Amino acid sequence: MTEYNTQFKDLLENPILKETTTPKEPNILAIGRGVKELTISNLYAYFLDPKESHGLSTLFLDALKELVGLETDFDLTTISIHREVHHQKKYIDIIIRDASNLILIENKLFADIYNNLEVYESYDSEKRGKYLILSVVKYYEKIREWQVSTHQQLFQIIEKKFEILTPKLSTRQSENFQTFIDILKKQYSIVENLTEKLAFLSNNNEQIINLFRLVNEVKSSYLQQVSSIVRSTLDKQIKVTIERNASMNFKIKDKSFYGYVFFNDENTNQLLISLWIAGSEHWYKEWHKENSGIFSELVNEYRNSGKLMVAKEKNNGRDWTSTFYQVYEINKPDFEINFTQSVKEVWQPLITALQNL
């Protein structure tokens, strides 16, 4: 193992690799809503509307006008901002229109530009509008009739105009504005970091591949040992299969129960065994009956004894429902002895009980 430690020392201590393992503080979007693009579009619509309470008047509209090269001013008496406009079974993110101007905006954060832009363009029957894709990364200069710009390009114009105008905002208005700008910068920063990390992966490709190979060799070695223990201690009629993705599974005969043995993706020192109900509505319903199903006695026995963990989730689908599981630390002394004992004294009685239900 000394050779591997020497070979990968510099790689493992690289700050970029360490950064990938450091939990990041969640931003407002992560806390507030799961669909970030919708949230960003809602915020844009709010700040683009001069009638809203943000106190910025036409600041965002003026910045957008400069970005798309609109030559005429907006008519503030007829302007309207629309979100998620339904058109030919599609939804256009933002539409801005007044008596003489029309701007269609498609907002992109992490998704690629896969939308049917021709359908969106057909909304503009008079072909008088401007079409804008706001993206985090500028992969293209233009797609069809659509200008592609980054959120960064827009918020740089916004910040420049803000400094010139220095609008008098209340504390709440100022916080809302700065928070939105910070959110946009955060999304752009994530992608910038991603580009840097991709370059790191490319430059260290051979070492990383060897590192993954080493991890898989260790996993495979342990799985072979675990497989031998499971085959020798569980019911002989239970079929054990080792998968290519460094895991193994077994099925309890004539029941819709599947067992999985695998390594924790986030901690290779942890080996997990989990038991799932699969493809049986009857077993699924019985599992979720509180103290009245056929599993209730087993659930109470193993939960109270602490021998196994019992899944608490009640929202599993009928196709796959988690039941019993346990986590084993392979880096602890006498792992094989303790694991063998657990299979014999805990899992074997449980599986026998399930077979007899």
TrEMBL record:
**What InterPro entries would the database entry show?**
PDDEXK_4 (IPR029470)
Lineage: superkingdom:
Bacteria
Give one Pfam family.
PDDEXK_4
Q: Please name the source species.
A: Emticicia aquatilis
Identification of the protein by name: PD-(D/E)XK nuclease superfamily protein
